[in-house]
Amino acid sequence: MTAKPPVPPNSDTAGEPAQRRRRDAAGTRQLLLDAARQRFARDGYAATTVREIADDAGVNVALISRYYTSKEGLFEACLRAAGDELRRTTVQTPADRVPEAIARHIADPGAAGLSSQLSLLLRSSGDAAADEIRRAVLVRSSEQLAAARGWRPGEPGSEQFLLRAQMALAAGIGVAVLRSSIQLDPLSSATEQDLVGPLRDLVDALLPPH
Amino acid sequence: MTAKPPVPPNSDTAGEPAQRRRRDAAGTRQLLLDAARQRFARDGYAATTVREIADDAGVNVALISRYYTSKEGLFEACLRAAGDELRRTTVQTPADRVPEAIARHIADPGAAGLSSQLSLLLRSSGDAAADEIRRAVLVRSSEQLAAARGWRPGEPGSEQFLLRAQMALAAGIGVAVLRSSIQLDPLSSATEQDLVGPLRDLVDALLPPH
DNA sequence: ACTAGATGTAAACGTTTGCTGACTTGGCCA
DNA sequence: TGGCCAAGTCAGCAAACGTTTACATCTAGT
């Protein structure tokens, strides 16, 4: 009894399983979300089955419909989660540390890493609502990246600056996807140290520090 | 047999239908391949059904199995075709014109354009044989790009050079995919002229001209 | 302790999937 | 002209898909 101080927040894929309650709706929702994010990011929407997700989460298939209405509803929730996490990890990066931050997050092999989020954002379900979420996340990310490099909305040459920021974002996505989806050496086996130099050159060339 | 002179080459999605013979195995194969390349590139492997491909080609479903053994066989043929076309369009580009060439091909909205080929190369069927083809195409492309910028195999610092070429390739793929799959302005609406400047900066930064 | 609602389970639904086998039809050559 | 094989059609298979329904079990409030 006693309310529930010991409820494991189940914070993302990281934290311990920490013996969750035998019946915990919020925990189950989170388990499904985490499993789905991994599957969708790695295999894509259509190639992922709801039974695989449920099995990964150790949960019954029917609960996907219960908690997320449908497979598409679950996918949209994944996109929103990726967007939130992307905003959280990239916020407040000093302008001159942007390439390092990107390199660090891209090199992170973890399932919750930037690579995984970026891969997920490229996946499509064919659903219009999901596409809109995807677009919004990418718009926000590119504006954030541009802002970190000195862009201010409404400035003259604003479009050019934003275009370059989006190209830098595209480059990051390309690297992340190529690293994770195909064994392409030396890119796939490159470490954070290997990546940071070229990435700095790339970002600096597109968005000059000053 | 003597080849077959009157066979309409059916060169990709462009050319005329040009009243093909009512029964023409080679022509039918090509129709299927063209339709499949478009579908696979745009929707991915799992989201594409063989019936859709057959309908697009105006051909009976059973002929996919006849001419390409299976859906996966057709997909592998698409990858090989994309690899051939990629090699054909990028070969013999002067070193200092590489960014322009990339920009031109990426901006090309045609279904047979570089964008489509690059998108296709990112698609996965989960099949090991297809993955190997994909990998081989990308390896060759990155080495070709590196070579165009002065890299010679076995040189000191060779790995670094190749890594940078692969990152440039990844950037190109990222731009192509982002442009085609999501309506992300200003990137999506950028013209060849808009792209060539930033792309030159990007490529030059990764692979210095000298 | 009892019960009502929340949570989880099991099985099956109807549809769509890739693929196949038996068939018809058309074009080519003797 | 007639026959024969390549080329194309047709209907349907078994498996897998997302989803739903009916039922079992746990938890919380009284």
Structure, described:
The structure is a homodimer of 210-residue chains. With 210 residues, chain A is mainly α. Helix content of chain A is 63%, strand content 0%. The first copy, chain A, is built from nine helices and no strands. Chain A has helices at residues 25-43, 50-57, 62-68, 71-90, 98-107, 114-122, 128-148, 158-181, 192-206. Chain A is globular. The termini of chain A are far apart. At the A-B interface, helix 7, helix 8 and helix 9 of A face helix 7, helix 8 and helix 9 of B. The structure holds a DNA duplex (30 and 30 nucleotides).
Oligomer: homodimer
Strand portion of chain A, in percent?
Answer: under 5%
- Major interchain interface with per-chain residue totals: A-B, 45 and 45 residues
User: What is the N-to-C order of secondary-structure elements of chain A (H for helix, E for strand)?
Assistant: HHHHHHHHH
Class by alpha and beta content of chain A: mainly alpha
Amount of helix of chain A? 55-70%
> What's the tally of helices of chain A?
9
Please state the average pLDDT score of chain A.
87
**Alpha-carbon Rg of chain A, integer:** 19 Å
Largest sheet of chain A: none
How does the overall form of chain A come out from the CA principal axes? globular
Instruction: Indicate the low-confidence ranges of chain A by residue numbers.
Output: 1-17
Distance between the termini of chain A: 60 Å
Count the strands of chain A?
A: 0
